[in-house]
């Protein structure tokens, strides 16, 4: 498989500074972000990654049914719990997106992002 970044760089034979293949390094990083399924409270989810959810089994969400991805993006500071959660509600495609931040030791309200077919 040939991986191209910005349609210019062929990462297949590119070596990283530690001697690993760039394509393998990118795949490993992507795999580490896919966390699998999640059940429980979104109020306890701070670990960066992508989680597949059945919202019937999740609390702290604006949805009580249906399925979708939860993306968690963490602040880079080592001791910071600051993060953003995004929900991509899935129903024959992404039908809704909701987002909320965690800062100053509290979760802030969910906001829906308008989605339209383009």
Quick take:
The protein is mainly beta. Helix content is 10%, strand content 46%.
Describe this structure in words.
By secondary structure, the chain is mostly beta strands. The protein has one helix and nine strands, in the order ββαβββββββ. Helices cover 10% and strands 46% of the residues. A hairpin with a 7-residue loop joins strand 4 and strand 5. The radius of gyration is 17 Å and the shape is globular. It starts with a strand and ends in a 5-residue tail after the last strand. The N terminus is likely disordered.
Q: First CA to last CA: what distance? A: 31 Å
| Biggest sheet statistics | 7 strands, mixed
The secondary structure category is mainly beta
Rounded mean pLDDT is: 78
Residue fraction in strands:
over 45%
> What is the element string, with H for helices and E for strands?
EEHEEEEEEE
Number of strands: 9
Instruction: Write down the Rg.
Output: 17 Å
Total number of domains: 1
Number of helices: 1
What is the general shape? globular
Q: Name the helicity range.
A: 10-25%
Which consecutive residue ranges, at least 5 long each, have pLDDT under 50? Answer: 1-9
């Amino acid at each position: 498989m040939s991986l191209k970044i910005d349609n210019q760089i062929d990462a297949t034979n590119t070596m990283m500074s530690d001697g690993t293949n760039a394509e393998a390094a990118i795949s490993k990083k992507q795999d580490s972000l896919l966390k699998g399924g999640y059940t429980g409270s979104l109020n306890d989810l701070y670990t960066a990654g992508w989680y597949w959810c059945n919202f019937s089994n999740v609390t702290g969400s604006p949805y009580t049914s249906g399925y979708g991805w939860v993306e968690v993006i963490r602040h880079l500071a080592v001791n910071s719990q600051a993060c953003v959660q995004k929900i991509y509600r899935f129903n024959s495609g992404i039908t809704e997106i909701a987002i909320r931040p965690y800062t100053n030791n509290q979760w802030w309200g969910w906001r829906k992002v308008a989605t339209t077919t383009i």
